[in-house]
Amino acid sequence: MDYLSTRGGPERLPFQDTILTGLARDGGLFLPADTPDVSRRLKEWSQLSYTELALEVMRLYADDLTVEELRGMIARSYATFRHGEITPVVAVGPIHVLELFHGPTLAFKDVALQFLGQLFESVLARRDTALNIVAATSGDTGSAAIQGLRGRQRLSLFVLHPHGRVSPIQALQMTTVLDGNVHNLAIDGTFDDCQNIVKGLFSDLAFRDRHQLGAINSINWARVLAQMVYYFYAAFRVMERTGTDRVQFSVPTGNFGDIFAGYLAWRMGLPVERLILATNENDILARCFATGSYSTGEVVATLSPSMDIQVASNFERYLYYRADGNTDQVRSWMRDFKATGSISLTPDGEPLDDPVMVAGRGDTEATLATIRNYWERHNYLLDPHTAVGVHVAAQFADAAAPTICLATAHPAKFGNAILQATGKDLAHHPLLDGLKGLPTRLTRLPADQTVVAAHIAKVLGG
Question: What pTM value is reported for the model?
Fold first, then answer.
């Protein structure tokens, strides 16, 4: 399987080179040249365990790894999870909750980043080289990346997070890791500032090559690939449980990577009635689906900080498919968006007409009410991101297609929101409670690409 850039650059890379490269040199994102149709294999796949299913999905896209190599990486990746099913699906009232928080940092990012850590280490050892990862995080990506890469040979990790704009627990999960190859950079700005700095560093090709930069954000194709697996797994479990032949998914969305994985699963033939895109007050994506205008706004701090994003990096991948693979059109859109912060995808403010994706918005009041409601009626705690997805899902209830809501984090990561919603201190986990009082390490820097680049160069000694 070859991979190409959304912006039409000449690079066509095999899987391993795509993963090490991260962002295409023309500034685009990599996508597979073909999308396999697996509709005839769904019945067979529905009987597989999570790790067996992961092997079948991933081998289609990682054909320059042997099956045994891939099987070993998958086994090691998910041995760290605390549930035998890896991503279990729980029936809660009118919905089915896909619990993606049983990994080492209690967030859905672990599903991909445990795998990516194994993949990086294996490929770098084979090539006898090293990689310096630079990542931006709005909370969960940073801690998951750190747990996936800490202490690994041939890898250094620089994580940029917006200072004071992640939850206290998320900050502790990152800054209490003192391994020598982990560098936490607290940026005085928003997540979008962090993300723009990282993209700028990758666009500086001389700096990128000199310092052997690699990406672990969802711009890296392996992140999307690993996340595709649980859409198949959850759909099979719920269709068997309910006797239906279709499902719909509700996905709390910030950077568009998680829901894009579901979009590709649908393109592969998974019977998905709807993909419900759920945003908080940072609703650039919900506004885009309602009006056809993809336009930035000011970032608002909310109870669901991992979604406090106004520029969704993976949306470019969706635009590639919306343009039917016309890379000239994608390049034009992204050039205009960079220049003006706004592009129109439909004439006269018409909604986006998408065959599978719809969108909605859940504000702080709705988030708190949803957490409270599910606790009082169903004795189930939702974290605030998941609550946004559950709230928006209610707008698209469909008896013929059961709703699967992605639970993207353990509620204990957002104890203040749970306390505010329920009036009770309910959200705890021993992994997180044990972080309090531990020594921390970070470097605080301004939201300035030049300053961040100089710091990285100094740490790397060049």
Answer: 0.94
